[in-house]
Structure formats: structure tokens, C-alpha cells
Design brief:
The protein is α+β, with helices and mostly antiparallel strands. It folds into 2 domains: about 80 residues, no CATH class; about 110 residues, no CATH class. The chain contains 4 helices and 9 strands; from the N terminus they run H-H-H-H-E-E-E-E-E-E-E-E-E.
Length: about 200
Amino acid sequence: MTAALLLLIAVVLGYLGWVLPDPGGSLAIPTLIVFGIGSIVALAIWIVTGSIATAMTAIGLTIVASVWTFEFSMPAAVVWGSNATAQAQAALLPPATAPRNTFGVVPEQCSTHLTGNVGPLAAHYRQCALSTPEGSVVRYTATRGPIRGLGYTNLGGATFPDECSRHLTGQWWMFTGTTSGTGDCPIGYQFNGGP
């Protein structure tokens, strides 16, 4: 019974850690929600069963689920069960083979997607691909709400001038706009100043 309960707690907290974070959104809020729910469950286990060992194990699972939520769930959502990298590489093919201007730049090629998703970013989103001599980037930006989304780039954080970004894995980043322009980024993001 105890093992089944602990397994259920791990599955529920892990699932919440998977679905609550949003590309370009705060990671602190989903992490606090997972931690809060896990802590309440652990306290309830201790009160109901009187078993400090089971309650401490539930707290341990809560800490692991919180770390999963903050650090690993977004990179996993881009890589596991997603063809996001293939989508990004396909979006870079037309700019990579298109004629370049005198500066070696191909004009940005954008399209809006009303269905589907790219990794954890669901439609409606705008896809813009750009190729320069320095590198290439595909930005997937949510069309609803504040500026936020995913980026696939070999240029690093410099791809997101005057925005807040967080490296996910490989060439994947997530980004969000900042309203002040001075770098008031959500916890876990860093501000990238403009050119």
C-alpha cells in the first residue's frame, strides 16, 4: 500500500511538472505549485498514518519533482516525443538554399501555424527562419498573450536581443519579452541586451 501511494505521488507530481511549465513562462510558479502540492500530501500522510518515514519519502519525491519541473521538463518536452528538431531543420532549408543579398543575408521567412505544435508550444504560433553568414535561427513565437516562445539557433543567447532567454538543450532556447527593457527576467532566465 505504501509503495503504491508513493508511486502515485511520484507520477502525479511528475505529470504536473510536465504540463504546468509553458515556453517562455515563469518556471518558478509551476515549481512552487508542484512543491506545494507535494508538501501538503506529505503532511497529510504524516497526520493520517503517523509514519514519519513515509512522509519524508514523500518530501523527497516532492523535491525531485520540483527539480524536474524547474530544470528538466521543458528540455524533455522539446526532445522526447517531439519532432521539434526536425521541424526546425526543415524550416531552415529554404533560407539556407535561397539567394543571399550583398551582405550574405536571406530575408526572414515567416509563416503562421493555426494547428499543431512545436515541442511544448501549441498553435497558434508564428515560425520565422533566418539565415546569415554568422548562423541561423528559427523562432517560434506564440501569437496570443505576451511575447514568448522557442528558438532553435546556433548563435546562442545573442539570438534574443532585448529579451530574456533560457537555454534548454542543444540548439534549443526558450525566450520571453521584457516590459521594462532593463532585464527584469523571470527566475531562471537571463537578459540579453540589444545590439
